Amino acid sequence: MKKLNFALTLSALFILAGCGASKDYTPPAGATGEQIFSTACTECHKPLSANVAMILSEKVANKDAVIKKFQSGSMRMPAFKNIQGEAADRLAEYVLTNSEVK
Ligand code: HEC
User: Fold this and answer.
1) Distance from C-alpha of 35 to C-alpha of 95, rounded to nearest angstrom
2) pLDDT tens per residue across all 102 residues of the chain
3) Beta carbon of 63 within 6 Å of any ligand 1 atom
4) Atom nearest to 65 CA in ligand 1
């Protein structure tokens, strides 16, 4: 029973620290995908080289999944709720054309 409580506390801490985190960053009108990426994402996603922004897993390597990822966030990634519409399209296109799929 003690062990179970410990495990529950740990997962609660994880959830508090990670999920629900969000960033208020709003892309300026007309910003390119590259500009948005270098302002909002490179804090955590350091580009691997001039042409490789990220390494994507196969299941995330499509436009819908990339947009969902940055709008909803995940365990250790904040949600960017203000990257919407055309800005979201441009950012997703930038990520997809400049990433390697593993
Ligand atoms: C505070 C750090 C942080 C920021 C800022 C951040 N990310 Fe992430 N991102 C992560 C982490 C950590 C992961 C991997 C673990 C996970 O999915 O929770 C990740 C995963 C991803 C993935 C999935 C990769 C895969 O193959 O599974 C995509 C796509 C992504 N990020 C795009 C972005 C974009 C686009 C931005 C900018 C709008 C961004 N991230 C900003 C931390 C961050």
Assistant:
1) 11
2) 566 555 555 455 454 555 568 999 999 999 999 999 999 999 999 999 988 999 999 999 999 999 999 999 998 999 999 999 999 999 999 999 999 999
3) no
4) 29
